[in-house]
Amino acid sequence: MWSAPTLSSSVSATVNLPGSKSLTNRAFILAALSEKPTEVHGCLEARDTMLMRQGLTVFGARFEQLSTSPTSLSAFTGNSSWQITPIPKSSENFENPAEIDCGLSGNVMRFLTALAPIFKAKTYFYGDQGAAKRPQLPLLDALSKYGICIDLPPTPDSLPFTIGTFPHQEEPHSFQQSESKTLSVDSSQSSQFLSALLLAASRWPEPVTIRALGKLPSLPHIQMTLENLKECGASFQERENENAWSFEPCPLQLTETTIEPDLSNAGPFLAAAMIKGGQITIPNWPSKTTQAGDYWRELLTKLGASYELSDAGLTLTGPNDFLTNRTEHHFDLGDYGELAPTLAALLALRPTGGTITNIGHLRGHETDRLAALETEIKRLGGKVSTTENSLIITSPVTHGAKVQTYHDHRMATFGAIIGLAIPGIEIENVETTNKTLPNFVDLWQKVARQED
Ligand SMILES: O=C(O)C1=C[C@@H](OP(=O)(O)O)[C@@H](O)[C@H](O)C1
Ligand SMILES: C=C(OP(=O)(O)O)C(=O)O
């Protein structure tokens, strides 16, 4: 149990955040798929990115940590630089059976599944207990309809499973028998099913169209995948109004790059300025980005903040009346689901609460986040209900308690935010923040103690 610090007065702090999880993992994958070695700087060092590196190493990529980061990044914490040697093209890769630990990472369990048939005859995927509850079947279905062999235990329909390779590597010409050259995937439960296939498509053994079925959540993450692919020279065409992209097999090359700070993880720190007023600066906030977390600027402005984006980064100034303001607020976070637990913490402190809609897909995140948020807000004395897709907070939290985190990093930061305003919050297993922000406790304590 970790006692979350309270904040007695307005805040003033600069928080250097490590690199974005989503951008780091995409850069690792695209470097591993490239023709020539490349360097990636400002990478997030956390459990999810470590697992991604390990997985790509199983396919044959090599990662060497560089001792120094570029000077502009020297103030960052939790960052690292890597020289990445791509996965060799030779068929030697097919000789050894492969095993990939996905931990609790959606990125690893989805993105590496779609790559496995390209590099290995058989790959066994496993992960944490909680990962077996995360949706995976739509992606496995899409691959198996294409003719790729998948061994699943009878139930459940997620991890662990073994995935084989393309039919033609075992039975020549069987592509002609596969249903079609379109891979259709129902991505309504996670945008990562679609991103996984898009990331793999340039290395598919023949031209392929990736089609997304269902209502897509997390559009900025899909945009991120497409932008990153374009930057590496991928050859694809979007089929207008179809949610489909047609790819030609094509060599990729990631050029040396520096990862932007993680803007989703900026949320809890910006929240500190919302609750007690004052200013938080996040250095290196990009002026243009595909990160979902850039939406904090608009979202927190709606809740009364103002901000300045300059060479110094983003400086957010919180309102003085957040804890007493009775304006009604409704947010649709269908595109920005990753931000929901942090927004829920803020709304749970407001006298009139607030509603978050279109977040049904969060039931398949690290935990069922709608259920977890409902339980924890009630534990803290708030009034809250959920529907299949939304969280409705009608009156604020009133007292401290032991907050459960369900192995979910964003439930730990949810508790910490509430703790800034409500004394007596203790957080179970705060180390779960290691998933994407290993230095969370240090950074948080500095903000609470008002140290720059
Ligand atoms: O592509 C990505 O890197 C991610 C996409 C989103 O997944 P979902 O669409 O499953 O919510 C997001 O929540 C996750 O944290 C990261
Ligand atoms: C849902 C998340 O992560 P992932 O799906 O990559 O495990 C998250 O970081 O909030």
TrEMBL record:
Localization (cell): Cytoplasm
Chain residues that bind phosphoenolpyruvate: K21, G106, R134, Q192, R369, R410, K435
Stored Pfam families: EPSP_synthase
EC number, UniProt record: 2.5.1.19
Predominant subcellular localization, coarse grouping: cytoplasm
Residues that coordinate or bind 3-phosphoshikimate: K21, S22, R26, S190, S191, Q192, S218, E338, H365
UniProt cross-references to PROSITE patterns, sorted A to Z: EPSP_SYNTHASE_2
Keyword Amino-acid biosynthesis (UniProt): yes
Residues annotated as catalytic: E338 (proton acceptor)
GO cellular component: cytoplasm
GO MF entries: 3-phosphoshikimate 1-carboxyvinyltransferase activity
Superkingdom per UniProt: Bacteria
GO biological process, one term: amino acid biosynthetic process
Catalytic reaction annotation: 3-phosphoshikimate + phosphoenolpyruvate = 5-O-(1-carboxyvinyl)-3-phosphoshikimate + phosphate
Swiss-Prot/TrEMBL keywords: Amino-acid biosynthesis, Aromatic amino acid biosynthesis, Cytoplasm, Transferase
Pathway: Metabolic intermediate biosynthesis; chorismate biosynthesis; chorismate from D-erythrose 4-phosphate and phosphoenolpyruvate: step 6/7
Any coiled-coil regions, as ranges: none
Residue stretches making up the Enolpyruvate transferase domain: 8-442
Keyword Transferase: yes
Function summary: Catalyzes the transfer of the enolpyruvyl moiety of phosphoenolpyruvate (PEP) to the 5-hydroxyl of shikimate-3-phosphate (S3P) to produce enolpyruvyl shikimate-3-phosphate and inorganic phosphate.
PANTHER family, A to Z: AROM/DEHYDROQUINATE SYNTHASE (PTHR21090), PENTAFUNCTIONAL AROM POLYPEPTIDE (PTHR21090:SF5)
Entry's family note: Belongs to the EPSP synthase family.
Name by which UniProt lists this protein: 3-phosphoshikimate 1-carboxyvinyltransferase
